[in-house]
Every structure is written in C-alpha cells, then in structure tokens.
Amino acid sequence: MLGSTLPDMSKQKRKQTAKRHKREKAARAAVRDTGISPSLAMLIGSMERFAPYLTLSNDPDAAIAAAAERQRQAMDAIVAATAQADVFDVLEAVRIRGLMTDPDTYRESEHGADVSMFELLALILISRGTRTATTSNGEDPGPAEVLGALQVQLQDLMDAGQMLNLFTSDRGEPLHRVSFGTRLREVAVRNAIYPHMLDDTLTALFDGQAIETACRSALGCTVNEIRRVFAGLQQLVINALGGRFEALEEWRQILDRTNGEVADLASQEIDQARALLAQVSARPGSNATHTPEAIAAMSGLGLDVVQVVLDLFSTPMTARSPADVVQEFFEGTSPLRTRPLVATPDGQYALVHQALMTPAIRERVEDVLRGDKNAWNVYSKHRGTYLEGEAARLIATHMPGSVQYLGFEYFVPASADETNPASFTKLVEGDGLLILDDVAVIIEAKAVALRPRSRTGDPLRLRQDLRRIITDAAEQADRLRRRILDDKGLRLRDETWLDLSAVREVHTVAVSLEDLSGIATVTSELVVSGLLNTDDLPWTVSIHDLRIINELVDRPAELLLYLRRRTEPGTTRCFHAVDELDFFLHFLAAQLYVEPDPDAVQRELPQLGEPPTKNKRRYREQGLELISSRTDPLDAWYFYQQGIRTTQANKPRMKADPDLLLMIDDLARRGDPGWFAMTAALLNFDTASQHRCAVAGPRLAAQTRADGLPHSLAMPAGTRRGDSVLFIWATTTPGLPTAASLQRLHDYTTAKKHQLQLDRALGFLYDHRTGGLLDTYYDNRSPEPDPALDSLGTQIGLKGPEAFQSAPPARRPRKR
C-alpha cells in the first residue's frame, strides 16, 4: 500500500521536537552560566541561535568582538548582494514575499521580527542616496537572486546587533535590565497593536471639530487627511500588485489552454501572451514609487494637503555610511519609525512597509503638536479624558452594576498634622474609581509617551519617563487607596462625604497609551530600581492590551483574580514574559500561580494548621518560569474575527472545572452580596478543589435526603490575613422552615469566621429536596475580638480550628 511507503510523520516530528528541545536546553544552560537575566534572554529571541555568543559571555571582550565581526560581515554581504540592483526592486521583492505568508498558518512567534528586519534592510538601501545600482559588472541580478542572498544575512545581522547591545550595555546601572529591554523591543518589535484597534484609537483621539482645528493649525492637515493619504498610497501599491497577479493568472490560463505549447496560439494571442509575460516579469520596483499627483488623485485630496502629509512622514534618500545607519538602528533610532515613507531624489514617494504606517501617526502628530502651545493644550486635555473614560469603560464591562466616579476631586492631608478628613486642605484629582460590593478599582490614566531618547534605553531619560508614567500613577493611586482604607471615605470638592466604609479590597490599574511591554512586565525590576514599592503594586497596562484582555475575559471573577495574581510581588520574580498578553494567556491556561512560603502562611494564619510537607517541597522547588510567546492562538482568533483568516480559530478561554464555572456564573447572575470577591476566590482553587466546591452542595443535599439530618461543610483558605476566606455549604433541615435553616447558616458562618479570624466568609444554603442553591450569606466584617460571637460559637458547638489540617491549595501550575 502507498501508506506503508510513507515515513511516520508524527514520529519524525517528535524526534525533531526532541532535538530542538535538547538544543534549547543547552542554550539555556549557557544563559544561566553567564548570569544573564532569563527575561533578557527571552527578549533576545531564539536562545539556540545565540548560543555561540552566549558561550563566550565569560569573556565579554571576545563576545563583543565576535558579534561585531559577524555584524560587519553580514552588513557587507547585504550591501554587496544589492549593489547591482534597484533599491525598490529589492524592497518590493522582499515585501511581496512577506505578503505571501498564509494568514491561516501565520505565527507571531516565528514571523514577529520580519518587519523590523525589513525596516533595517530599507535603511541600508536608502543610505545609497539613489535608487539605481551603485556598481555594475555587466550582470543584472534579478530580485529572486538577491532574495536568496539576503535571507540568512539579515537574520545574522539582527542577531549580532542584539548581542552587541547585550554585552555592551552598562550592567552597573540599576535600570540596566529595563533599559536594555526597552532598547531591544524598540529594535526588534513591530506590530505590537492589532491594526483595527490602532485605527479605533486614532479615530477616538483625533476625530472631532476641535481636534481637527488644532491639528490643521499646527500641522497644516488633519489626521483624517493623513490616513486618507496613506490609504491612497497603499491602494496604488495594491493596484500595481493586483495587476501583476491578474496578468499572472491570465498567463496561467493561456498555458492551461495550450498545455504549455504557446507556439500553438494565434498571432494576436501570441502578442497578448507576450504582453502578459512582460507585465508579470517586470521589475517589482517599477510600480513602487508614486508622484504626489497620483497620490492626490487616489486619495481625493488637494495636492497641497497631500504634499504637507508627504513632507511630514517621508524620509529622504540621503547618502550615508551603511555602518552608521546600522549602528543607529541597534541603538534604537530609526527615522522610519515616525517617517515611514521614502522620498526619492526625483520627487516620488514609496511606502516602505504597510505595518509601519498607522503606528507612526500618533507619535509624529503629537511631536508636531507640542510645538504649538494652544493646539497641544486642546489635544492633551482631550487625550486624557479619552484615556480615563475608555479605561473605565473596559474595566466596568466586567464589574456589572459598579458605581463609577470619573475625573473627581477630593481632599487629602497637606501635612502629617492633618488627621481628620474634615480638616484636610489639599485638593487633588482622581482619574477613576469603580466600586462593586466591597471591591474598589482605582484607575490612573497616563497619556504621556516615552521620549525618543527613552526608547533607545537611555537610563536617565527612561527613569524620568517611567517616573511620569508608572511611579506617579502608583503614588497617586496609593494616595486614594489610603483615604479609602484609613478614612473609610472621601471628602469631595463640594464638601460631600463619599462613604466607602464597605470597601475591603482595593486594586490599582495604571493605564497608558504607550505600549510598555518589556517594562511593565518586569515589576520586580521596577521595585529594585526604586520606581515602585511593594506596598500596593499597580497593574500597569496599555489601553490596547486592556482592550484585548477585556475581550478575552468571559466572567468578572477572571478579571478580579487576574488583578490579584498579577499584582502579587512574587509574580514577576517567578515568571518572566516579554508581553502583558503572554502573562494573561498564561493565566488563562491556569499557570500564573506563585507558591506561597508555607512558613509565612503559618505565621499569618496559624489557625489553618501546620502546612503539609508537600507544600514546603513545592515552595522550595518553585523556580523561575520563562513564559514564551503565547499569542499565536490569540492572533489566529483575531485574524478569523477580522476575516483575514479563513480557518476557524477558537477564542482562548479560562481553563477551570466546568461545574465550578457554572456555579460562578449562577452566583454572578444572582448578584448576592459578596459574589464578586468570592467567585474570584473560588476560581483561585486548584482543579480538584474547584470540583469539590462545585459539587459540595448537591452532595450534602443527597446525604440529607438519605438520613434526614442537616449537613454542612466548611472550607477555609488563604495565604495571609488580607486574602483569607471561608466557604460554608449547608442544607435545609427536613421538617423545618427554610427561614430557620437560613438563620442556622447565618449563625454558623458568622461564628466560624470569627473563630478562625478570617477576612471574608460566604455561606451557601442548598435545598435538601432538589439540591439547588436557595440563598447565600456573606460576612466581610473585619476580624476583631467579640465576646458575643465567642458565646455564639460555644452555643452552637463549633469544633476547634484544629479540625482543619490545612487549607485547600490554590491553583498551581501543572507539571510539564
């Protein structure tokens, strides 16, 4: 049979995977030996490719020399390979090849650096100062020949440049790892935001009469006109490319009709075939550049406006040393970042890469607006209002029924002498406050951007910008947090008192317009650098990542649990990721859990008993986990939603016990007091405990039906006083009114919570006849001495805390 002659592809694939894992393990060992932070090694990319450099890390001078020599060789090879070719023939050939990537098989983890490598190639080529060949030996290499020579050299050039950055960076600088990661991301990462989201943000920021007037005053055009010029230029490129593909398809049809024998065609058909073949084989660069007049005609705008846009966003072809261009690129400086068009010496314009266009708009426009004080004031106020409102909208989606306060002012003490809220004299502003049950979420919106020098990793500028974006947000949020927890409310500007005495849990979300991936994901580094303290760590996230997470979250408990997990001080010490979305997708996969120190837990919660030996072992064995790129399934889902991908792709979802998710959804629908905080606590358990919680009520009801007696179950959990919880399941008593059973649940839940001195407790009352949930009782009073509750515990015959050997475990990473 034919099948018997084919190799076992699954077995072959397993062997290949095993070999790759072996090579990667060796490379990781090399990383450990160098003392390089694993998070930095992750930022670099494939450790297997970098192993030859990393093995030299004990001799930094040798590593630097090796990387510099390889960079020089790769750059010289690229210059030589393209010297006899037209600049735009090469760029278009490479770009067309990129367009051939199948969206159904695209993987960001495999193709993520393609655009940055293309940008580097463009910078090298336009440094000629002319589009024509710089040398000639009588031969005229086609684009295909050039592509073959470029593929390996571009990757080697990128690798060597990144290694030089690593080994030449100042490791004595406290912000070393953060600044290196910032520069590395500036060099290697493009397409950090889904295009449709970027378009939506530009619309929200720049549409509207007042903003358009400000832009026209400062720039000479509006952002809408900029987008139309870009769209017109892109359409010209598409039309030219489409014509080539249509000609190719007609040529194939001719070959099909004649079985490849073109000589059998009639004379007029031969002429047609020759014309088609000429169109197919024409140099790709012949349609790459376009005149302002053509762009104006395609965009439907006046030539004067089009020229203003082209001048704003174009980089001239200026003769420069390729070595200087390459060095600047790896230092984090590229003119194409904000000027993604190329202006040729003969007055035409070319689009470098479509992925560079839209991301350049906001940064370039804001840079020009800053030069016009009036225009900037109008825009910056609008930008701040938008960010505050959008952040609150996204978070409130998963806090249904929450009370919201946006852009409010309140009083804080101006000095340590002011201890009574009624005497506070300093008026400050809060961006956003959302309250649901006893949970408060503070929103601090920071619309300021990283300056160009900060993007290069300059420690001084980066520290200044991070202080404006992250530190200020954390300090302002902590100021509000202290008033909520210490004063139990806020005195607002109008002298009214906002009572917040019911709040037991406060979280801070610091939202930025800036993509801070590689910075906000290393909270522990920011603490070490003095930019944050561990008292109340904020979740720092870009508005675009927040939007994606908002769309991925299926239930409120998921968002609250992520806030709890993500802001744990140990999270970024135990997990390293390049991207916020990698953290969140790791969380959805039930992996983002830090094993608590059992001794610390016992000191905080001795009433829960001696921690088992296995907990101590897990804590000791807990190592640093590198979260590799997890966004491929997310990309696939978005591409399918946008119609880019034809193969259906499922949305990434939370991995949890299905029965528990049904229980959580039911509690959310009921909306009983405490449902928000306690459903997140249920979701925090490991899979076995989740199932135990989900089936506890119906099982107790079955026991009551069998023996006619009421049954109950108590389950305490927590790692410290502030997150300690108690769950109680109880059944109605046959022959007694439901009200009596509910009172029994109230008494038992209150007394048991008091006995164990836990922070929150939730009791469930199940109908013994149907096994269905009848009611819940929530107690979130702060634990404190209470003789009346002591007496109640004695009266109902509570067992002592020793009955609990240990708390059930929270969700732990599965063994791999």
Word description of this protein:
With 816 residues, the chain is α/β, with parallel strands linked by helices. Helices cover 54% and strands 11% of the residues. It is built from 33 helices and 17 strands. Strand 3 and strand 4 (349-351) form a beta hairpin. Helix 1 packs parallel to helix 3 (47-54), helix 12 packs across helix 13 (267-281) and helix 12 packs across helix 14.
Brief overview, please?
The protein is of the alpha/beta class and about 800 residues long. Helix content is about 55%, strand content about 10%. The two termini are about 40 Å apart.
Tag the structure with descriptive keywords.
816 residues; 5-stranded mixed sheet; 4-stranded mixed sheet; 54% helix; disordered N terminus
**Quick one: how many beta strands?**
17
Radius of gyration: 31 Å
Helix content: 40-55%
Q: Strand fraction band?
A: 5-15%
Main sheet overview: 5 strands, mixed
Q: What structural class results from the helix and strand content?
A: alpha/beta
Instruction: Give the overall average pLDDT.
Output: 85
User: Overall 3D geometry?
Assistant: elongated
User: What is the spatial order of strands in the main beta sheet?
Assistant: 5-6-7-10-11
The number of helical runs is: 33
